[in-house]
């Protein structure tokens, strides 16, 4: 079976890489990460103009964009809106997203409870009003709408009707927030068993998306390591000729190719609603998240003393890699589920 992207998708990749590279060079990325909000307030309408928010995009189209937003981190709630929230939105709300008028995220984790995407929620709705608290909400302080998990389904709540507390996070361009709902007006999106099934599909999409972003992060780390190994000289030779550096690059390359294969497999399974989607997404998220962390650590070490300074851009990618690896639980949790599929 041919897992290659189409010519149009590869063109989309080229346009996305050029756009992100022009907009987020190393200096600009650091400025945004260290800013008050961590968000590029002007980019969302531009994404709409580029068609990145269109509901007609297939998941394979989005896969190309997600990988590129890892290669050059996008300081906007793109992952939160298009991956976490979009599958639950109705047509009218999805149109607002596509027009660049609305951003959204999914709020599921609660204090004092298990915090997985598929774990039961304690928030409740009575007479159309939602009460409860959510924590670790991705981009929670940067969106207009929350898709909230409640005991009986998924509900849409305007951010203006919630009490949002922003938190500084590991990744300055993708921050978390705590959100409290005190009888907030809530519009039902999906309820009952259909909500549980939808959350399962959202988790699969999220795991595939995390893997794709992680591949982009790992590729960028490898690019920076190889470029430095070619230009930095020691004892009259580029440091890349020494095994201490070249072996790091080759080890990263191997991990990266494994992660890319798994991420593309997961993306294809999600796009085609393949029966193996759950296993593919679990495997991809587990391996790619760790591969991105591995790539950044080795790239930092390969840069020597300059790599260990906080000012070096590699640390921005390292933080994103750690965010991705930790999303919805560490890799050992996903491996345990894969093992259950094989052994139970």
Automatic annotation (TrEMBL):
Highest taxon, organism lineage: Bacteria
Sequence ranges assigned to domain Acyl-CoA dehydrogenase/oxidase C-terminal in this UniProt record: 209-342
Keyword DNA repair found: no
Cofactor(s) listed in the protein's UniProt record: FAD
Keywords from the UniProt entry: FAD, Flavoprotein, Oxidoreductase
Boundaries of every Acyl-CoA dehydrogenase/oxidase N-terminal domain copy: 6-57
Similarity comment: Belongs to the acyl-CoA dehydrogenase family.
Protein name: Acyl-CoA dehydrogenase family protein
Source species: Actinoallomurus spadix
